[in-house]
Records
---
Amino acid sequence: MLTDPIAALATPPGRSALAVIRLTGDGAFAVAARVVDGFAPEPARTARLAAFHDAAGEPIDRGLYTAFPKPHSYTGQDMVELSCHGGLLAPTRVLAALHEAGARPAAPGEFTRRAVLNGKLDLVQAEAVGDLIDAIAPAQARAALGQLDGGLSRRLADLRNALVRAEGLLAYDIDFPGEDDGPVPAEQIAAELEAVAGRIERLLSTAPAGERLREGALLVLAGRPNVGKSSLFNSLLGMDRALVTDIPGTTRDAVEAHTDFLGWPVRLVDTAGLWDAPGPIDRLGVGVSRRYLASADLVLVCVEAGRAPEPDETALAEERPALLVRTKADLGGDPGDGIAVSALSALGLDRLRRAVAERVFADRIALGDLEPALGRARQRTALACAREALAGALDQLRAGDAVLVAHHVREATLALDELIGTVDVEEVLDQVFASFCVGK
Ligand SMILES: Nc1nc2c(ncn2[C@@H]2O[C@H](COP(=O)(O)OP(=O)(O)O)[C@@H](O)[C@H]2O)c(=O)[nH]1
Ligand SMILES: [Mg+2]
């Protein structure tokens, strides 16, 4: 159990009005008392103004501190939050003073990890904390908040309870075959297991949309040189990221940028295109384009308005999820059935954004904001594991081997336990918290 006192900066380093430092663990209040003048843990959860000083008594800053006696804190342990002035010096010195006073530097995600270990959050909620911090689009933040509120956790807990109930029925069947009530009919157990398997299947079906939402949909701009891909890329981002010239083949490498379309997260990629690669570097660029195209959630096939798409362009639009975009519409060419846009006049950009969002997030939009979805491979893998185990249980039920049925149901329960984090699996925790920042 992680209980020793730790301290870390909870806000990003650099020039700012304020900075927040967190301190938690056994003895956190004693550590705080060595740095904060007149420190007292009571009244709890009440901000108070105090002077902060180092071990030698040298004043560092004046700021607010709030004490959270356990278990009513983020980590479930005694905790203190100090806010001091921002900038390079004050936060670093307050933190150094806390370290000198007996707290060690926190590891990435260690505060949230302790919250999980103390039952304040489950692992799925802890992942949501990370997702909320990393969110760049409102739809991502909404999904993360729903998960933090327990939207997904409650579903998983219901599934787990149903499995434990089935385990109970099975134990009854095995242990007390001679009881008056008789063993539980196999059909009843099969019906319960099938119901759980069906619910797991439905959750699993949310994974593609959920992962696309968490990671951002991959949109790849493709088309002949000079059709205006880089210009469109820049206009959609609202800044000049990619080079634009009238020289064909200007873009050779792929340029990727995150943004949101009407609140939905996208990763927009400008590529060299697929055609006319005169030199070796251009050909490399074409190779990169192909790899991006292969993993794209949607390809924006760009063809100038007024020019009929060539057969290869039509083929590109047809062989994968794609949208036909007619560029340079300000020049007056006929856009046909594609979406007419102009990077120059911004014509059609919002229509394009809407069409893309509605297309790539159709599943998620249909599901509604409040329905939980699986956003991470870890969640998908664990549920797939539970699904396999349940399929095994149903097979054994048909074969009439109650002991093996119970074994497989237990496996399914364990997969859910690992997912929720009710069993202390060190590697799982390491994996989840590796990407966290130190103050979280
Ligand atoms: N009139 C007009 N010209 C454009 C538009 N978009 C791009 N261009 C011009 O077309 C040329 C090629 O643009 P670029 O974005 O580099 O095309 P790419 O090779 O497909 O990336 C440049 O001279 C741009 O100024 C547009 O919407 N309208
Ligand atoms: Mg270009």
Note: The mean pLDDT is 89.
---
Amino acid sequence: MGDPASLVLGAFALIFGLVIGSFLNVVIARLPEDRSVVWPGSACPLCGTPIKPYDNVPVLAWIWLRGRCRACKGSISPLYPLIELLTGLVAWLVFRRVMPGLDQVDLPHLAAFLVAFGFCCLLIAQTYIDVRHYIIPDELSVYAIPFGLGGAVALQALGYEGAFLAVGWKQSALGALVGGGLLGAVMGLYWLIRREEGMGFGDVKLLAMIGAFLGPAPAVPFVIFVASLAGALVGLPMVLLRGRGLRAALPFGPFLALAGLVWLLTGPELVRRWFPGVGMLFEL
Ligand SMILES: [Zn+2]
């Protein structure tokens, strides 16, 4: 846990996450506008001046520029360094989860880290865009399912064994089907009873993607359960205070994303503690 080699590797994971977080900022800004995330390079959103490489260092650049563009002195949102920090922190947490000790520093566990962290990046970008624009781009949900499938196939080929990721194409495909199907069924039922859309179809596509990465059960029911619980905890006070419908108050996507992250970091342990029978059934 505390040995120097693990600390150094953890620091690498953190820095890797910060750099990827910087790229996520580009994805978050451009995807809803249908612009390429690869070209051109980053520019100031206010004056369009291309950002110099040394001003593109995650978090630090924002601090030494004091949150202002070098060219036009316009203020740059603190959300940029926050997204970078969050992505770095998540990379470090996922690293601690997948490679808790030096025994796990090998190719299968490195692959598991990349799959799990890539999954988290999809969740972070999707959450931000959903909160800001009330949409979940297909690029971050259904189009990402093949990556979940590919990751699961690679993990099986490498002989990875872990209870919190889908391993093998069967688990991944089944996860996508159960994820999309289960939430689709809940949506259909709600529509039959209330004659209104309870959730967006984007949430169904998102849970299909989550299932493709995490496998069908118990991950998918866990994610729906935790997301509903968190949504109710945050949403009910808002409804009571503002007197609006739960649906109008909150997008569900961010709670699905949060639940996906919780599953990744501690899901099997929580299932074992809350529902020992289920844990035994799935050999968690
Ligand atoms: Zn500028």
Note: The chain has a mean pLDDT of 89.
